[in-house]
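pasting for the record
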Amino acid sequence: MSAEQPGVLEGAIPPGENTVLFGHDAAQSFLAEAYRSGRMHHAILIEGPQGIGKATLAYRFARHVLANPDPAGAPAKIVDPDPDDPLTRQIASGASHHLLHLARPVDEKTGKMKSVITVDEVRKAGKFFGQTSGTGNWRIAIIDPADDLNRNAANAILKILEEPPKRSLFLVLSHTPGRLLPTIRSRCLSLRLEPLDAQDLNRALDHLGAPPGGTDAIIGLSEGSVARALLLRNYGGADIAEAFVDIIERGNLSDREPIHKLADSLSARDRDVAYQFFTELVIDRVRAMAREAGAANDLAEANRLARLSVELSEHFATAAAFNLDRKQTVLHVFSLIFR
């Protein structure tokens, strides 16, 4: 991750600074038309897998709205922002008084990002919307992602969504909308984004300056996600995925050496991003196995794997909350899988 911006992967462009979006043309057209109609919903839930451009789309749409405060006079299309435009520079630097980005804060003691969006962060939204705009322009909050809201923070956001201020817009991002409070989902208009196809993913990686060689293999493993491609390319994700699949396909704990080797690698210093990739990989893989079992009409196995995915999610969450030893956390993952 970038030392300057915690949470930004190495090789990535922060969404607020990114002037190009690959794919999602239909979603951009929908947003532009909804805004121009003057009947746009006050809260839009932009959902889809991680790393496919949800945040970049949110920033592009926010800039579109702020640049055209009168919906009737807004262009019918969202265009690439001019990097030299003052509004673009304000948004990129986080200096816009009309745009608030809510995300996991950095822990001042550790310098690392906290595991959740806290209620203190959401209180910033209350103050933000409570201020009077001198220009009468819109006020926009990007919640990135809402999956990270803890319960108190989610309830605080819900109260604002229930009585939204005038000329306010909430762009609520979610990788797994099923984790959100049903009451939050019910107050948002859902806009689903799909993973990028191979062509758009290739273009996105080229835009980020991906070096030649190995790109085809990375695209095949990326599942349409730029973030996953960067993790595979820059953080040893391909090796982690290969080691995990090899252990799973072995089907038992008879040979523990590869498991300990993987656990040692993931628990080493400065491996935060690789460890996070592993946690997501494990859960995604088990969920995929559950879907495969369901498709094969093995409902008992599908149910077992579905329950296992929930148990693994809770295991990782508990380990993060109590800062448990990562090696033991990884080892216990395989004990659960091969139980």
